[in-house]
Amino acid sequence: MPEFNRVLIIGASTGIGKALAENLLNGGASVAMVSRRREPMEELRIKNEELRIKGTGASHPYGKAFVYVHDVRDYDKTESLFQQITGDLGGLDLVIYNSGVMPSMQENEFNFAKDKEIIEVNVMGAIAWLNEAAKRFQQTKSGTIVGIGSIAGDRGRRGNPAYCTSKAAIATFLESLRNRLSQHGVKVVTIKPGMIDTDMSRGKPGLLWLISADETAKRIIIAAQKGKSTAYIPRRWRLVSLILKSIPSFIFKRLPV
Amino acid sequence: MPLPTTSSSNLLPIGTIVPIDHLESIEGWGGAVNSAAFVFRPSTVQQLKDAFALAKRSGKKITLRGAGRSYGDASLGRENITIELTRLNRILDWDPVNGIIKCEPGVTIEQLWRYVIEDGYWPPVVSGTMYPTLGGVLAMNIHGKNNFKAGPIGEHVCAFDFLAASGEEIHVGRETDSELFHSIVGSFGVLGCFTSITLKLKKVYSGDLDIKVFIAEDLHELFQIYEKQIPESDYLVGWIDAFATGKELGRSIVHQANYLKEGVDTTPAQTLRAQHQDLPDTILGFFPKSIMWIFMRPFTNNFGVRLVNYAKFLSSKISPKKQMRQAHAAFAFLLDYVPNWKKSYGKGGLIQFQSFIPKESAEQTFRKQFELCQHEGIVPYLAVFKRHRPDKFLMTHAVDGFSLALDFKVTNNNREGLWKLTEKLNQIVLESGGRFYMAKDATLTREAFHKYLGEETIAKFMELKKRFDPEGILESELSRRLL
User: Fold this and answer.
1) Of A180, B255, B374, B478, which is most buried with the most CB atoms under 10 A?
2) Looking at CA atoms only, how far is residue B24 from chain A in angstroms?
3) pLDDT tens per residue across span B119-177
4) Distance from CA of A172 to the nearest CA of B (A)
5) Do the chains contact at A90 and B21, CB–CB below 8 Å?
6) How far apart are CA B327 and CA B211, in angstroms?
7) Does residue B184 sit in helix, strand or coil?
8) Do residues A185 and A174 lie in contact, with contact meaning Cβ atoms separated by under 8 Å?
9) Is the pLDDT assigned to residue B299 strictly greater than 60?
10) B21 touches chain A (CB under 8 A)
């Protein structure tokens, strides 16, 4: 199993990203956190510093946290920031692209501004960052890439067309990366979470099998360590997805999902 | 691949991106430590300067690397720009009358001996492998099996040109700039880069050496053989069976090699040919050596090595061949005899722990080291014993005494225990006034490093660092760990 000593998380300020950062730091990894908002990351960094100081000498279990304020739509800065981060971390073992937006959408609303943001953050940002990771890992012949898809990407549903599109796109992009990079010893893992108790989903109707961000983060790390291709979290969503995917379109369009 | 030129990219701000296609995962020779770095391989001094300029513009540090033959992390620098000097490898001048040669730093020991041997010369000091570059050799100030007689390689260097990290270029002669000379040689690549090295070679009258073999039944006898043989030896090296315990602890085989005097070899034109020196490609006449390491693999474990060691000792004991002639290369480069033998150690690789102990306490100290390894259940698979004499280099590893080099196999399971064991071994060495060797080291701590060199020496060295590398651009994993 690979050891994740140096980790980069893009989209680390809240929800799954924050939980991932906490879990990996507690496990002894050094973590570079990238997000638009400084405060939540700073808070985590300071908390981690305190824990590090309390730890004993060289054998303390806590890694080092790094904070980078960045909008993933700032595509021109991705390459230089990526190189700065790998320098600060002293290498790279694991990259998790977790940035994602899901603006609320009325049933009959069509809103290009919202759709554009979804595609830019969820898809274009992912491609910009994961291309950097892919270039690096194909050179070093090592590394693990994790991207967050969704059960929402398995079927084009009526709720939020652009969001479903973005998750389908990211899943396909990750699959292509996996097929390109496996020959170089690089693992690419697609995570498909179901419904998670985060700011993004909270208060929305029809939530099912809700699990916490912390539990999700733990399962993502396990899936990454095992180098799985696709992991549904919780696992039962794989079955649901299989059923959803097999429903013919003439029936699916009548279903209120 | 040509380096970006300084002229056009000078305008770029600090934080220039280093092209990702230069990124490579590189490892120390022992394979137990590795890191990713942006590797550049300049073929001219101008390109070398360009790489330094690129480092400054991109805000990255530089690690110097020769052939990457140091066992540990001396040529590694994670995420740094690594300048590998293997292509800066021209022989610039050769004077066969006086045996004086001027080389670029990437010239290897192999290149050197092949070039000069037919003129009747041999490098005065060589390592157990012929693949290191002269730049690396000088940065580590290596020794050979003749250290007690010839000193380290630095004593045979007449002068060198040096490009400091600051950009300062100096020519340093051994006689004319003695203090600087003896401080830069052995500074393990963190002050600057040699750009040319002038060496005085050893005149030889035959391509062969006279070899004698001695058997020691225990450690004490090994020391006795050394005491008796040293005055009559040009080279002397001992192989110890580290698995032998109790009364047999330290049982060993000693090889002595002496140069042939003028006229003894009746066909020097033949023995001095490079072809005569070449190690055979096959073992027993048909077995290709390139795949030999695969067959060694089943034996590279505690049981296998114990068995092989016993067989080796026994066969030496009963073998009638106590005297023979051997070519220089065959005697000197034992480590190259089986290509890629380190692969037989498996994925975890190996580390070498070599310590240098004053003669008064050496026997007792090495006994303690063997007993400790055996007690901890981590026994070295190779143990090599040599005699040394002191020298006047600032960062010297030599003592008036003996050294013991221990090769340990590294596995996922033993790694933590092994590093702890080396800490205990370090302690034993420090207590007996011993020293360490940067070309081998992978585990030394800052405290131990400062203790064996002394704060005065460290302060002197840091002053040089300030002069030659005021911005602290040059570093390696080793220097980060120890300085």
Assistant:
1) B478
2) 5
3) 999 999 999 999 999 999 999 999 999 999 999 999 999 999 999 999 999 999 999 99
4) 25
5) no
6) 10
7) helix
8) no
9) yes
10) yes
Which residues of chain B lie closer than 8 angstroms to A80, CB-CB?
Answer: 15, 17
Dig out the tokens for B60 from the structure: 């990255």
Domain boundaries, chain B: 6-87, 91-203, 208-267+280-445
Task: Name the token pair of B99.
Answer: 């045996």
| CATH architecture of the domain with range B91-203 | 2-Layer Sandwich (3.30)
In 3D space, the residue among A151, A166, A147, A153 whose CA is nearest the CA of residue A236 turns out to be: A151
For this complex, say whether ipTM is above 0.90: no
Rounded Cα–Cα distance for residues A114 and A111 (Å)? 6
Residue A257 lies in a domain: no
Number of residues in chain A: 257
pLDDT bracket for residue B335 (50, 70, 90): confident
pLDDT at A61: 55
Res. B1: pLDDT tops 50: no
Instruction: With respect to residue A1, please indicate whether it lies within any of the assigned structural domains.
Output: no
Number of domains in chain A: 1
CA atoms of B284 and B286, how far apart (whole Å): 6
pLDDT, mean over chain A? 92
Which of A139, A141, A142, A184 is most worth mutating to test chain B (most B CB atoms within 10 A of its CB)?
A139
Alpha-carbon distances of B467 from A146, B193, B194, rounded to whole Å: 46, 14, 16
- How many residue pairs from chains A and B have C-beta atoms closer than 8 A? 35
CATH 3.30.70.2520 is right for the domain spanning B208-267+280-445 = yes
Task: List, as own/partner pairs, every contact residues B243-249 make where C-beta atoms lie below 8 angstroms and the sequence separation is at least 24, other chains included.
Answer: B243/B302, B243/B305, B243/B306, B243/B309, B243/B310, B243/B374, B243/B379, B244/B309, B244/B313, B245/B374, B247/B218, B248/B217, B248/B218, B249/B218, B249/B219, B249/B367, B249/B370, B249/B371
Query: Residue with structure tokens 């170089």?
Result: A184
Which H or E element spans position A154? none
CATH label of the domain that carries residue A126: 3.40.50.720
**Residues spanned by the domain of A129:** 6-252
Which architecture does CATH list for B6-87? 2-Layer Sandwich (3.30)
pLDDT tens for residues A194-210? 888 877 677 776 778 88
Q: Which of B17, B21, B35 sits opposite A91 (nearest CB)?
A: B35
**Residues of chain B contacting A84 with CB distance shorter than 8 Å:** 15
| B455 in reach of chain A (CB within 8 A) | no
Nearest residue of chain B to residue A135 (CA atoms): B20
* Stretch B455-479: mean pLDDT: 97
pLDDT of residue B10: 36
Find, among B423, B397, B429, the residue nearest to B142 by Cα.
Answer: B397
The reply to whether A88 falls in a domain is yes
